[in-house]
Design a protein that fits this description.
376 residues; Rossmann fold; seven-stranded parallel β-sheet; homotetramer; alpha/beta; Dihydrodipicolinate Reductase, domain 2
């Protein structure tokens, strides 16, 4: 099953780490640590093999992939030896990247995006293409009547005034080109009624939103722990310090707000109530890709006794996200091939803010995921 | 279903917190935060009601329960208002406590313990009595041939040389008096072939070992998190600082070793390999009942990138343990009544070092527990 | 030397803790832990004795002091046994508290405040009165021409439009009543040219601003440590979580901004440059008086190697501030008696944002303080 | 002033980092971050210039320095670009390293060591040579009568039975060759009466012991902070996790004990009493050179209110130690030239366990150091 992975934001840290990693695994230069689809219950023949994956993508920036990979190596995100060993492959990879199109109307832009996707599919005779958005987080969009119905949306896209945020336009283009779509950021992506209608009509699946890479991953196991012990969480406050491109973007209050809301949702879901406290994000350039998050949880136990848990997470976001991007592409491709269309809520394991009403506790999400894979 | 809870170590912090709590819940002076058996899937009619519980116990010390309760209130473990409101009940409770017997042979001691249990059962017309060991941790015992067969053991107990550690002798006495037994400490308790044989012969169940109250509870959700994400845990090191009676006892190297082994076991079980590192316990009198544990986890992700997680747990051991003691007594009593005898591995949710080969991940233990309760 | 301490905000947590403490020390019910003026080099005869201190004050709220003291005891800030033992003294203390006056013009209000101060002085035949502002933090004031000259200010105070923030009006009133003034909060207090002119003219000293009780105290020793080792601090970020009255007030963005600026100033002073990062304050009601602050410092050493220091401070603000309030009152009274007028920059040891250009490293501030006391 | 630095343990992490650093600073490839002697008050003409330093040394291992430097670069301790740029210098440096001599008696071994020192001095026409011990920590030695008098020692060294630990033998050899000596580890070094006698007789100075690089550095500013605020430290407990060669050695209980004692001494000195608690060291190979130390301090304030401070230090020991080794060599050489002999207690700023009765608070040690340098 020849499978294309088309990355929106293909020259960013997550995309280039994923690209280096996919090439390195294929060349047997590294193992598959961090790849969930390599764990026994998920390692099934219906997933595309590593050797069947081809990566392409769009980006608005033009930094050469090799140069970006070298910068990631200097920052300790990927090993320098891999970048050196994959020099030729990373240079050749430039041929599969395209500048993100931009035209007079969003409809025309979508058509150009779709044309790039179709060309990619033909060039490599791909059975399936999965578009994955790993570009920077957008502010939450303003509601618009065109978001609710596909017909209205199609009309609106012909006018000069944009109605869709960039991520949703990418999802629209993906669906018109019969590609599946994964929203790895907290942006809108396919999560509009009009886009859901389109995905179902074209018979393609989609997944999202917001890859669960760090602090929220820890929350998704600690919050259920308190719930299962009938301990009352009184407050849960956190501070995320991060540099790098994502950090700079999140310093923008609107993007920050979108991300922060996504981070606290897991608590209400797992606990059944919303404890006091907020989760903040601050940009600290010096911290670079190695995000540091500190959380303080105050809780009470039997007879009201007050207690506390603190944790500090020092994680490399790109190294945590990249294997999940590859996992999601493989799983979504297999789902597409198995005839699934519309949302894939069973992939909630991977997301901070999953589609549908699935569980938010990691262990329950894992149970859903393994059942989903077994049924493919 | 009139149910007796007989606590070995009935004047200690855990026991007195459990006693205050049980009386307070019955008098509707507090809620049931921290009690797992009050969560929806476990709150079933087959469990004894709070009003059906009667508490008694043995201890080697003679501190009045009321005085101990006042000391716990001064230390912030239980609310002073509850101790004041329960003044009469706590005073009356003295009548249900007995000095721990001691005779020339362990056989005679066991007979005296059993006689106290039988008298307790008769006094309150109890359907079931569950003996719960909450006394201080023993050193790991030396192996002895008498541990393997009930006949050999019965012979050995008649001689003057002791062959059983105190916890195992308590289990022996409990079984001969047709009582169930719960080992809440890391001590031996019922975990000897001869005692298992006795429990099955008398038709009584037993559970254990080592209540999962703090650092290990957190480990039991974090270790599976790493496993489910295919992240490689490279080292896991911890330091537990605690005062109080348990802390002083654990400063004894032999008891410490028993406890520490129990604390690292969850890692190998959940991860499938034993990472580097140890978990230490230090006695710091000033810290009192509010234990502080710090853990550092180093792990690697995709392409070998090194990352870290630290957590600090500030928990009140007695406030965490006491509701579990009551939960375990209710569950074990219900199991006894339902005809179960021998080990109850389905109660692994509550323990650091559970009986049997059950899962060590908290979520899987929860699934086993809810199935067990549903079948009662 | 009979010395009056007049607290603005006399029914708040800091003031009531200071009052309970001063009464308890005088009655020999507690020791003087936390009182800097009891350390050998500062324990000099020129300071007023504990038995010479009389406390009074203003407040806008009317909660009885005894009730507030009981609430502080319930929260673990002061021992319940002291509140019980001082029942009569705390009840009698009501007689020395007055509602904060409010009149048609700020000039008239100041006159009423001054009249209360004079009455207090006469009632107890006090040699000196020190007014200490421990009320909630104000937003930074808008600049006004009347702030610069005493004559202009006197004119402006006669008009109906207010020109001074409450703290500065209190300082104005204090000076007109020949009282010294200590600004314990980040508010303006005496820090206006017109007020400085008045203080010098009346021959009274003043001190401030913003008592250094927690996170900033730690910063004032850690930042010099990095400087003395020639280590380069790259970023310093922090999150302060606090409940209680001060926390609620600081949730107001304007007050928050004033406080946060004061918190980062020490870094630039001690390091000689301003590292990246901010110090945030979040209100978490559940945390109450026991503030938790987490700081992350990233720094580089020889050959640019990146390293990190994190700390978490769990401090009780009122218990940290109260003895400093008493220290400052004793020191300022002694300085007044010794003939000092105008600012007392030598008291920088106590403040986050000291008057004058003194050192910000704690050890250097200590050297200045001991020299100041030796010269009294 | 041509100055030789002779490192015992010249192929270890600290030594090679210091060597790379000294070469890089001389070649203007890096700045002097981390070098205390480059701070304004210490940057005086009486110190040898960077271009006047020549490094040589002994070691028992034979790993090429270049290979070790490359390993340090791979571990992130030194930048790979510096190792590449200094390839030729690091290769040439091999000529200045010698295997650590070993002969039939300790007297003969000392003579061989001294001969290597003399040859080094002649080869480079050095005015002064400072021997610095950066080899692994020894267990505390058994007392021996020969340690007390130089004559007795000289006799004993002629016999076959060794009486000095290796570090003391190195100091002995250094002094006989008219070289100064710095003990950078917690080992004995020059701290024996017989060696002190020898140093004074030969007119050479010595300094030590145990470079203050991480957790103890932080303690030396935090402990005085509590003291200056009259806060009562109740317990201070710590865990140091470290890998690398030093870590493996410290896993040996005897070496560990020597190090741990040195770590707690600062507390008693700065506080005036010894709080509860211990500082542990555990070897965790995965942590490598980037040591992680966690400390918990419990303390009480006014009216006995209990509070806490925690810190975590993630430091690279070699990057912290190397510039101090160069600082100490420069300062000791200047002292030697200025006619100082015997102990240099004024260098206590650099050590966990300084010679003499000097202050343990970092700020006071700094004051002593600047006075010392001003007088050179």
């Amino acid at each position: 099953m020849r499978t294309g992975i088309w990355l929106i934001g293909a020259r960013g840290s997550v995309a280039v780490t994923a690209t280096v990693g996919a090439l390195a695994v294929r060349a047997r230069l590294t193992d598959t640590t961090g790849c969930v689809t390599e764990l026994p219950p998920l390692r099934v023949p219906s997933l595309p093999a590593w050797t069947d994956l081809v990566i392409g993508g769009h980006d608005v920036v033009t930094t050469p992939v090799l140069k970006k990979a070298e910068a990631l190596a200097a920052a300790g995100v990927v090993p320098a030896r891999l970048v050196a060993a994959l020099h030729d492959e990373l240079t050749a990879h430039e041929n599969d990247l395209r500048p993100l199109p931009s035209a007079a109307t969003q409809g025309e832009t979508a058509a150009l995006i779709a044309a790039d996707l179709t060309a990619f599919r033909r060039r490599y005779t791909l059975d399936t293409v999965v578009v994955v958005n790993v570009s920077t987080t957008e502010p939450a969009p303003h509601p618009h009547a065109a978001h609710d119905h596909l017909d209205t949306l199609a009309d609106a896209l012909r006018r000069s005034h944009p109605v869709l945020p960039a991520s949703a336009l990418a999802a629209y283009a993906a669906f018109t080109a019969d590609c599946a779509y994964v929203e790895f950021t907290p942006s809108t992506g396919a999560r509009l009624p009009a886009l859901d209608e389109l995905a179902r009509r074209r018979g393609v699946p989609y997944a999202g939103c917001d890859g669960k890479t760090g602090e929220t991953l820890v929350k998704s196991v600690l919050a259920p722990m308190f719930a299962l012990r009938n301990l009352r969480v009184r407050s849960w406050s956190g501070l995320n310090l991060l540099g790098g491109g994502d950090g700079a973007n999140l310093a923008d209050p609107a993007a920050n707000a979108a991300k922060v809301a996504s981070k606290q949702r897991v608590l209400a879901d797992a606990l059944g109530y919303q404890p006091e406290g907020t989760s903040r994000i601050d940009y600290v350039e010096d911290i670079g890709d190695f995000k540091t998050a500190w959380d303080l949880v105050t809780f009470s136990g039997f007879l009201g006794t007050g207690m506390r848990l603190e944790f500090t997470w020092h994680g490399c976001d790109s190294a945590l996200a990249a294997p999940l991007v590859l996992d999601l592409a493989r799983l979504t491709a297999a789902a597409h091939r198995a005839g699934r269309s519309g949302p894939l809520p069973e992939l909630g394991f991977f997301f901070k803010d999953p589609l549908g009403d699935g569980p938010s506790a990691l262990a329950e999400q894992w149970a859903e995921l393994t059942a989903f894979v077994a049924a493919l």
